[in-house]
């Protein structure tokens, strides 16, 4: 009872608490900026950024510890809509999204908007088709709903397998990202940095479960959005005199178009080498563009670590409102990402392409030494190495051409402060934001996996009479076990891990979406139909991904690997529909349950 009262007191004062937190973080950044002016080394500033943010997250995690099942799995269902929206946005905007979105738009230009449209559009599907009804049902996990809706343990077990496949590589990538950031700013080996990052993740989530993860994710959102906006706002002020990059974006695009033409006219690039930033369907044809949008939308509406966030709100109405808040908080980053990419590209076109090799900025060699910038086909480690490589290619002008410059897309956000000549404290701030994004998503994913293993396998299938204490011990052991395995995989630096993260959306779309949507909206959907639909849709998508990625299979209809769900999802719907019509209908009790979860008012169905 005392624990519940403390939780209520925290919730009632949450606005004041996070206002103080935001002010304290701003003061901390200004303090570090002052230290930089007084000559404190960059390494010390990097240490302070990493340790301060990790200490804050760990403190919230420790203070939010709980021994109540409802608090551990769904934060007591007391998270206000606006803060759940903020936590969901933090959960959603992973390290890959924070670092990679602007880089993807830098490389793909117009075609990169497929990711923005797909990922944000998915929340419309979440609000309309799925989240409010799962909240009314009152499940702890997605497999929990599948087990109750379709009866028996088969649907639950298949759901757990799909959840694990969708989430494990995703969480491994987040731990990988924390390792990169920690190794860069703490000066330790990558392998050791991975486990340092893992420690931060576990402290945030192990003791308090969803309650701890929720409040740390709110804190992490504040850090990551400030870290994302500050550099591009400063860059906009420096470039245009107006500190609103989203407003000045159009002017910058016009300058980029003019520079692309100028590079060709000056002989610094061939017309065939430059893909105009504003040209549509240059990297993806029309079919692949919209197939990608659809897979990302449906995948977003099916990812377990996102859907389980809406189990934490006080009511169905709050769950629906929470989706709106999620979209707003995600909008701040995604609306800025295209401008981020444009300002970075403008800086590179103006100050790098066409510059004498002797006058290239120092950041090129900083990132060249870690293999992220190449000039004349080699890693740009030193001026001498670059000059020799360009001479070997027959370039005697000493001027850097467009084709001789290559930058990893994931460098764009991290390197922007250095590209723009901003103080090092801004680079540290960006690193803290990337760390917050990776940690928040890793927490959500680990919790989704561990909760499915502890609640759906252990409690529902192995020991339904387990005590609360035993259930929570098992949940924490599972959390540590999965986290340790993911950290070990990340420490091996798997080459395909980032591409496999993109698979999660297609696998979730094909494996979960038909069963969830038909389970909510079609009473006639039977257990046999749902099981057959999940197996066939997920199986076809997995086959297509593996066969095209590793087996050399020619893509069907030219559909790229990343959009594999475009085949599995329709098959899942068709098989579920056909098999359901050929098998016995659900019981009257199940049909009554479906009717009950469609009614917004009233208490949670599982509590009746």
Question: How would you characterize the overall build of this protein?
Answer:
This protein is an all-alpha fold and 608 residues long. It has a domain at 2-28 and 42-242 and 281-341 and 435-493: Up-down Bundle (Sodium/glucose cotransporter), CATH 1.20.1730. 73% of the residues lie in helices and 1% in strands. The chain is built from 26 helices and three strands. It has a three-stranded antiparallel beta sheet with strand order 2-1-3. A hairpin with a 2-residue loop joins strand 1 and strand 2. The longest helix is centred in the C-terminal third of the chain and has 39 residues, at 424-462. The two termini are 22 Å apart.
CATH architectural label of the domain at 2-28 and 42-242 and 281-341 and 435-493: Up-down Bundle
Global shape: globular
Number of helices: 26
Rounded to an integer in angstroms, the radius of gyration calculated over CA atoms is: 25 Å
Structural class determined from secondary elements: mainly alpha
CATH fold group of the domain at 2-28 and 42-242 and 281-341 and 435-493: Sodium/glucose cotransporter
Average pLDDT score: 88
CATH class of the domain at 2-28 and 42-242 and 281-341 and 435-493: Mainly Alpha
Fraction in helix: over 70%
Q: For the record, give the distance between the C-alpha atoms at the N and C termini, rounded to a whole number.
A: 22 Å
